[in-house]
Amino acid sequence: MLEGFRVAEYHFTLRVLERMELPKFKGALLRGVLGYSLKRVCWHGSNTDMHCRQCVLHAPCPYAYLFETCTSKRLGAQPADMPRPYVLEPPLDGKTDYAPGDRLAFGLTLVGKAIDYLPYFFAAYASQGAFGLGKDWGRYELERVEAIEPATRQAKALFDDGHWIPSEDTWSVDFSQLAELAGQLSATQVTLSLVTPLRLTLSQRTRSSAKEYVDGLAAEPAFPVLLDNLLKRVALLYRVHCGRVWTDSREALHEAAVGVRSECDTHWVPWGRTSTRQGRDLDYGGLLGRARYSGDLRPFLPFLLLGSLIHVGEKCDAGNGLYRLVWPRATRGGGGEREGRQYGAIPAGGRG
Question: What are all long-range contacts of 123-132, with beta carbons under 8 Å and residues at least 24 apart?
């Protein structure tokens, strides 16, 4: 199942050269400057306001593929709904003021073919340093890029002190490894700790499973709604960015999801930014909190593990929809369970 679905994680560290004033949630900012810088790196003409579709190099262009992913009608998705093959994991400390010498670190997850495009992400963030970040466009330099080894969570330097370090290993993980790990985990209960705002859309299938918050977004992460969003995202990523079609029937998973009990303790957090590229305000608000699911979770665990890497819901590329999985474990000296370590990837130790 999902043969060839590969995911790779990286860690970028920026060293601040001039004072910066940044928002608490930096995902949208990091995505915005990525777009501008990537277009500047890849653009072959003099008019950067030209739409990508007008460019003769549109088809092979890394910017067009990574940032303006297009689709065809047969995929059943509009261009705006197509998942980009990357996910940003912004810093979560809420820090807003950065002084010279401070570090700003964030994660980058690439899917499928996009793993080969890592040098373009490096070039984009490295070149943006001369233009700066934040309200006053404080300059920075790209200090370090690391690959994260999936099983041990160890970091391997790919770029350090101004030099690339040759490596033939992408340290990617595929779905079969996640499925193998899932067989070792608790199959009756798991808690999702929502780390960044979660935006789940209600479909015709799931409208009876959760209340609507606004504009078709779910007011809580009921399990059928979460799974519906996750499976749609996986299927599109697999088709567009791994070049394969998920032929296995997903109907049985949807039917089984109805039997999973959901206990949601979440609230809506508003957040927005203005897109100068699109000329309008964008809503990045979503759900934060925790959701506990109980029942026969065996068929879902590989997908929940994958979702912790690729995020779920809307605006994942800007960092929305990040969650950690918290597994129960028996307490010493008695029955009962308590929350164990948090796992957000395939760990031998976890992320947290």
Answer: 123/41, 124/34, 124/37, 124/38, 124/41, 125/12, 125/14, 125/33, 125/34, 125/37, 127/37, 127/40, 127/41, 128/33, 128/34, 128/36, 128/37, 129/14, 129/17, 131/33, 131/37, 132/18, 132/20
